[in-house]
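Narrative of activities, Objective 1.

The group set out to show that a structural description can be obtained from nothing but a protein's sequence at a throughput compatible with the screening campaign. Below is one input-output pair from the validation batch, recorded exactly as produced.
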Amino acid sequence: MQDLYSKLGASSEKEEVHSAIQNLDKGIAPGAFCKVLPDFLGGNQEMLNAIHADGAGTKSILAYLYWRETGDLSVWKSIAQDSIVMNLDDLLCVGARENFILSSTLGRNKKLIPGEVIRAIIEGTEEFCAWLRNLGVPVFFGGGETADVGDLVRTIIVDSNISVRFTKKNLIDCSRIEPGNIVLGLSSTGKTSYETEWNSGIASNGITLARHVLLKHEYAQKYPESLDPELIGKGGYEGRFGLRDPFGKNFENLGKALLSPTRTYAPFLAALYKEIDTGNVSGIIHNTGGAHSKVLKFIKGVDVEKTIHQELPPVFELIAKEAKIDEPELFKTFNCGIRMELYVQPSEVEKITKLATSMNLDCHEMGEVKPGTGRVSLSRGDRKWTYSTLP
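Output recorded for this entry:
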């Protein structure tokens, strides 16, 4: 698996990145999901600051291919959502719930990405922020930067960052994850009460792998700008499928399934934070890079034991089959239908599950935390495997 990622110029574990930042100051709550700072903006000891930067990653290449093939500009609005959610939902994991200020950064090759695409992304950003505010999540678009950098970018990069100033007492610090906590998993698939379309669950992780193992080589020939030139004929787009190929009953085609916008859990968490004492929430993990092994970055002296009861969603089943990925690698690369985990006291399970059900958001009781040495074990059917922080 790592050999495949290396050939594609990607990394599922970002070892070099983690090595580069390992000596940086980790803020005032080193166990929090995002770096948390004192209130430098306001100077109030009862407040905290946080800022997060992320983006849609190589999912923008999927949007580029689909747009070039179909002329459908709507996919760019979903890319705007991907970029926002990858920041917003991380910040929600630390308990932030006050006003979020968003800034976007677009880097494009002007020869290939016209103004109508930029307009669709910016309009999509404004519309998604307004939609969030209407659902009780105060996100405000503060503008950003659009740069023509054709010497650097082959198509387009859609990135953003969000800043937030929030109340100190609401901080959720994952270092509090402790024996006895119940693990609740929030589904990434289906259609919640606050969504208008069915979601495949793919989100914005593992897209490089999915794109190259699923899509036909003809895309490399038609759109060589969409991949590393060294991959043309040597691993790029070696799949069997076209973007317009049928895919299940809930999607127009495979392309739309792969471009399902990253689901936000913000409306659910905004409502949840009004109902429960966050002191009973030991940690919230956004299963992005690292997927089901992500919690390893935060636990100490405990083991997390999880059981996957639900069926593997079709998009992940297809990727696993075509890439010939075994389950331990699959669940470390993709969310596989669970993209957020809540580690909570048993007393809160019923209340959280009831709220999720009211929003048509599947909430699975996946397991529990036990005394241990820093391991995560997963069971699925008759298979069981372990991820470990140990050498």
